[in-house]
Amino acid sequence: MKALYLLILQILHIYTWVVIIHVVLSWLISFNIINSQNRLVYLVLDFSYRATNPFLNKIRNYTPNFGAIDISPIILLLLLWFIEICMGIYLRPIIF
Fold it and tell me: CA-CA distance, 73 to 50, in Å (whole number)?
C-alpha cells in the first residue's frame, strides 16, 4: 500500500512538471524565442499538449473568457497541489 501511495504521489509530481513545461513552451513559441519546426521542440510540445489538453479543456468549459489570458493551467496546478495536500493529510496517516 505504501508503494502505491508513493507511486501516485510521484505521478502527480511528474504531471505537475508536464503542465509547467507545456505552459513555458507555449509562451516561448508565442514570443518566437524557439521554433516549433525543430523536431525536439515539436515532440516535447506535442507530448505535453496531448497529456494536458483533456484536463485543460474541461477546466476551460467552466472558466470565464478573459481574452488572451488563459487561467486553466493555474487552476489545474492548484487542483493537483490540492490533491497532493489531501493525500498527505488524509491518506498518509492511514497508510504509514
Answer: 14
Residue 50 three-state SS: helix
Global pTM value: 0.92
How far from the centroid of its chain's Cα atoms is residue 69's Cα?
Answer: 17
Counts of helices then strands in the chain (DSSP H, E): 4, 0
At 53-72, the pLDDT tens digits run: 999 999 999 999 888 899 99
Task: Please name the residues in contact with 47: beta carbons below 8 A apart, sequence gap of 6 or more.
Answer: 18
Contacts of 25 by beta carbon, 8 Å cutoff, 6+ apart: 34, 41, 44, 45, 48
- Rounded CA separation 59/48 (Å): 16
**CB-neighbour burial class of residue 52 (10 A; exposed 0-12, middle 13-18, buried 19+):** buried
Largest CA distance in the chain: 49
